[in-house]
User: Fold these one by one.
Assistant:
Number 1:
Amino acid sequence: MELTRRDALYALVMGGGIGVSGVAYADRKAAENEGIENESGFSTDQLQTVVAIAEVVYPTEVTGIAAFVKQYVTGLRPEKQASLIPVIDAFSAHVREIHDRPFWELSISDRQVALQELGVDRMSPDPTGTLPERVRYHLINQLLYGLFTAPKGSKLVGIENPVGYPGGYQSYQTAPDVTE
Amino acid sequence: MSQNSTADRRPSSDADVCVVGSGVAGALVAYTLSSRGHDVVILEAGQRFDPGNRLEQMEQSLRPHGSLLDIWNMGGPRDQYVTSGGAYYPLNQTRVKAVGGTTLHWLGITPRLHQKDFEMNTRYGLAADWPIDYEDLRPYYAAAEQEMGVAGTQDNPFEPPRETDYPMDAFPASYSDTLFADACDELEITMHSTPQARNSEAYDGRSQCVGFSTCIPVCPSGAKYSADVHVRKAEAEGARVIDRAPVQRIEHDSTGETVDAAVYATPSGDTYRQDADAFVLACGAVETPRLLLLSESPQYPDGLANSSGAVGRYFMDQPIVSVTGELEQPTNQEPIGYHTRESHQFYDHDDPQPGSVKLVFENVNPESVVRPMLSGGDMTSRENVFDFAMGDSWGDEVLDKIESNYPNNRVRLLANPELLPRRENRVTLDESKTDDFGNPVPDVSWNIGSHARETMEFIREVQYDIFDELGATIVSETDLADPPPASHKMGTTRMGTNPEKSVVTPQLRTHDLDNLYIASSSVFVTGGAMNPTLTIAALALKAGEHIDNAL
């Protein structure tokens, strides 16, 4: 299942409050952003780190992760982006100290090990906690939140309009597509 | 979110009306009176939440950390309580103390009570009659539907007479509703639309519902009505809101016939007296009697306005009866957050037993996959405070777990049976435990009597019949011995004409004090089996009219 930048915009839509459908809003924003690589406050290294984390925690069925993740994190609210950056930097510094390389240069399996060594997999998310707790909250859980509140990501578990996505008013009336 | 502790919280001078509480009752009274030229001040114990943060609150609700109670700052030292009845009452999960009150996280269902609910003693020899009847409240119901914005269609053959169409068309049936249709036809059970204060089209400057599916705990789009709408309208008419100002007691004059002031505390540690010509208590069925009981005086040693001894008594809610079944076909339970079809067929009964009951065809929303995904595959409820463990997996491993845990073939029926008012079901003060201001906390004592239990058993059989006809396999059901409440708190300052048996008059003024009114579900004499909020709103509009006439 290939993710696109448009899927990332679907994950970011705020349609309900402004009276337009989320899909229309996302489509318009996608057109506006066409060709724009990165106008955010993230450095290229920081974005590569986040993409590399997503490649570990997203199901292997998912492709197109880099485009999706870059669009998603750079589209987050400024205060949310600002909360991510110090965690990325702290995490990157930790990995470089242990492995002498940037996180994204590690193999997928080594990335998995690096996250486990830090204890990220066994810690509860806490936005102001220890480094593993902050990595779990700000990076891993934010990436998973983006994927599973977007229609395409949620479709991985058979739900086309997930909770938290403003498309349910149309979908709840329709019969299941049994051909899939 | 507003946590402003330095705002000017000094009392207003020359206030005509002081309203305590800013939920649907307080907001509508304040709007009614301010729009008629009165100087209104609202004292709200909780904070004001910025509507611009609703999406952030939704994300908070979907993430698996913290508690759902945190979203509206529910619980904590301010909201300490105890429950001592035969049935546990989870008070802090059923109310919000904030500008807008509990409508910030309500479901939004807005049926009217039926005529019989006002005449339970006359018709069945049970409980007591209201001192007003359905016809008295009928115009206020219509006005409340307009104010809140109710979507509905006149396809319900059992609903009481109405004079006007609903402001908006009803929400279409869900696909899963249609799965019940044949079985209900066969059993001669009539399904019909569900009136709800949720926009099926743009209304009153607010968006149509777009289906975020998080009505409880938070509607990010503003399509679901919440009382902060009318708080803002009241403010536009000149009303003033003082938030984070819990009222500590109500004080009367030397004669004991008139209220002088509401004494309230502020975050800065100051205590003020708000004077006014009239006072309205609009704090719901728990805090309203609690405040009266806290305001005891030499003239009212058992609590203010409590000459009858009825303050705190006749507390009601409706127990939930639910059955979940599985079909051999997908039910397409795409999330929507609310139900769209009900049946009031079992409401207007001829004999005293079983009592009224409302049957609901639930849309069994799939659990948000976000939460288990972010919990590392931990499928247990995060509301279980004893479960500190988080799952430790992600990626394919979690996906496999979720796929096997969320079958898309479930249907559910809910029902709310009526619970008769019982004198011993009550809210009292527990002197052994105090809140953050040192006040005794409320003790909610709730027991489910034989009438409600018989009604529960009756509707459970109806639910079984529907599932049998549907060919569904029952996979879970609520325990009839220990049902959860529907969060419809009612009673405790009942309305009546006899001051020895009731707390407020049919005009919602307390029998004991000339300028003290109560706008709340606390004035309900009986609760019926319908969601109470529209009736609260209608009574608030009625109270506003009486106060306007009295000023």
Note: The CA atoms of residues 9 and 26 of chain A lie 5 Å apart.
Number 2:
Amino acid sequence: MKNFPRIPSGCSIVGIFNKQAKRFSGADILRAIRVMHDRSNGLGGGFAGYGIYPEYKDCYTFHLMYEGEASQHETEHFLEKHFIIERSEPIPTRPHPRISDVPILWRYFLRVKPRRVESFRGREGTASASSPQFCQVLEETTGEHCDERDFVVEQVILINRCINGAFVASSGKNMGVFKGVGYPEDIGEFYRIEEYEGYLWTGHGRFPTNTPGWWGGAHPFTILDWSVVHNGEISSYGINKRYLEMFGYHCTLQTDTEVIAYLFDLLHRRHGLPLQVACLALAPPFWKDLDGNAGAKGELAGALRQVYGSALLNGPFSIVVGYTGGVIGLTDRIKLRPLVCGERDNFLYLASEECAIREVCPAPDRVWAVKAGEPVIGQLEEGVQP
Amino acid sequence: MTKTLIPNEFLVKIDHIRCRRCKRCILNCGFGVLNFQDRIVADHSKCVACHRCATFCPEGAIWIERNPLCFKPNAHWTPESIKAIYKQAETGGVLLTGMGNDRPYVNYFDHLVLDACQVTNPSIDPLREPMELRTYLGSKPNSLQVETVETKEGSYALATRLSPQIKLETPIIFAGMSFGSISLPAHKALARAAHLSGTLMNTGEGGLHRELYPYSSNIIVQVASGRFGVNQEYLDRAAAIEIKIGQGAKPGIGGHLPGEKVNQEVSQTRMIPAGTDALSPAPHHDIYSIEDLSQLIYALKEATRYTKPVGVKISAVHNAAAIASGIARAGADFVYLDGFRGGTGAAPTIIRDHVGIPIEMAIAAVDDRLRQEGIRNQVSLIAAGGFRHSGDVAKAIALGADIVAIGTAALIAMGCRLCQKCYTGNCSWGIATQRPELVQRLDPEEATERLVNLLRGWSLELKEILGALGVNAVESLRGSRERLRGIGLNQVELEILGVKPAGR
Ligand code: SF4
Ligand code: SF4
């Protein structure tokens, strides 16, 4: 099993979203993150773009990072077993003076083999992705869920966990993550993200406290179409991780941000909690504010804390979470990290600093500081298809 | 009678120059050690080091020393084992004792240290920010259903009905100690302190005295193998019900309350004749398997119309993990684990000192197992067994306990000196006794206040610990073993506890 060190870090985050699903170039997000240069130290930057692969929008798009050809062979062998590979190609990059030690970067447009899901459904979970024997049964696909997306989640966790030198940067449909070691503006140029068009972009500049030099350690962190950029550190990581293990998520990356992506997947997709309610579980109000609030909201918030206490994200954080249907901005419940929001026309902007918003939207209709623990949720307008 | 070979454990020293012969020490000694001839004289053989005389002597003229009498040093044959053999050679009986295991086994709490925040994530100041210890005892579902509603408050409402939950303002409750083994003022003080602190006391197996009825919402009633005091009213007067299978101090054996402690009040509360020994059998005679246990759990739930949590207390033994999982699947709302340092009013010394496992290991093993099986939410995990301070509490919670129970610490707060003579019924402090002249020494008001203070002090310390860890809710510490490190533990121990060694 791979074991990565856990690295605390500070950061800049940003998100730009168009509610009408109007696609715009990645150049904007690049400009927005560039002005927050001082919030990162050149050891990690990355972006997530949504709506960037319209011609393959029904395919799970895997962005892979390989340390060497052996890992690529092993992974491709694994992918061929479980998926129909519609297309496989290197991720386009341009040489960059400040970007070095580049891993092999590859993307695959995949469909799940129907037979695979069948057998996945048929078998009751003999081993979950978190059990040690799982690595030995790489060939087998087992599990107790019966959703195609659960199957994909398990394959991603398997690759990250069991194939040496291979790392899945993203795995959602019609979206992709471009990240690596360097300043975010350099990483963006390196990946040529201005050549893509998406209706939602998020970006991240990282300030880790030591030098892992590992590309997988950069943000965003993802599972399926969930992507998370995160400024802060989750002090409750230990229990969040153990909680997720109970549901088959194996946190391989030893990074606190990983748990956020999995928690959204668990609470929203698998448990069916509306996003607002999921956020209420992740950054709940204080008891003192609930006591005496006997109404439906108080009752719901109280029950959420009782049942989802282990999912509570505690410690300083501000996050921007992207998914197919929109974007979520959230901070910890005493707001130990910054998050500013801006709006103009059909655009919603979220950033660590207001300057990042004004860089791309000099005259927003409204700019406000996000309140502690209160989510800002931007969703595609009704009827709008990405 | 031939002379005993057992040397005195303690020597009572009296400074006859300072002594003004007020005889207070004689009155205070519950064990009949002191006597007045022309001056105070002591029968050293009876002294148990309960400190009552020394505490109340106005002149500081009396104190107790360990008998320095030297045995030929022998690493194998310790004075304790030699004296135990003398005792049994003289009596031919089972050696009894009180309180918890006092042997120098490895104390895992003392090999675990907590984390704290520096720079990258800030610590939180509990004096300036809210710090939440609130904990709910009860079974929780794995997920919640939400329905969409249109109210002015918001658009979602809870659709799942939760099973009964008891709100605790601190994750510390009082452990089960029966009326009979301890006195009525002690029992009352526990109930009132629980009430004032927003937590729970536990009746133990001795029934519920009427004077405790006003505190019903802060009481766990126990249903033990002797079924003492169990009737409908008893179940109705409780916030939660606990089926006691085992106790950490004496796994696998029943209870024994000597007839001397069964006075009128105790007899009424337990519903047994006065003066008779109250012997609870080793097993419940209606529970010989896990399905029997399940039946009792549901019988109690039926009897109380599913309005209160029903849990099961077991002692921490080798396969506690599998047993706890069975208990959770049998329908219990909580599992109470009692480690081998847990106290008792009376137990055979040999059982107390040699049976059971440390609570630290049991918490880790049970929490792991319940998580592996995906049923951790189904039960609240209560851990007990010799918690000495809030550091032990924090570590137990980090290992995976939802709640900890304190028994011995609560008695110490009321004055107990850990003399381990509770089974004699002579407790000089009015705690583990029913002798009226001793009982009246314990002022329930004062004892209540001392207990409330203890809970408050530990709770404040827990908040300090949470703040240092950079979290503001106890649920972020619960099961977060990442925040613990082991010192001086071997690889296997670290693995069982699920913690990394310090330095990693
Ligand atoms: S209490 Fe102290 S002063 Fe009084 S008789 Fe005893 S030893 Fe002497
Ligand atoms: S309760 Fe009383 S008899 Fe028991 S150990 Fe404490 S002081 Fe001694």
Note: The pocket of iron/sulfur cluster (ligand 2) is lined by residues B 50, 98-99, 411, 416-422, 427, 429, 431-432 (CB under 6 Å).
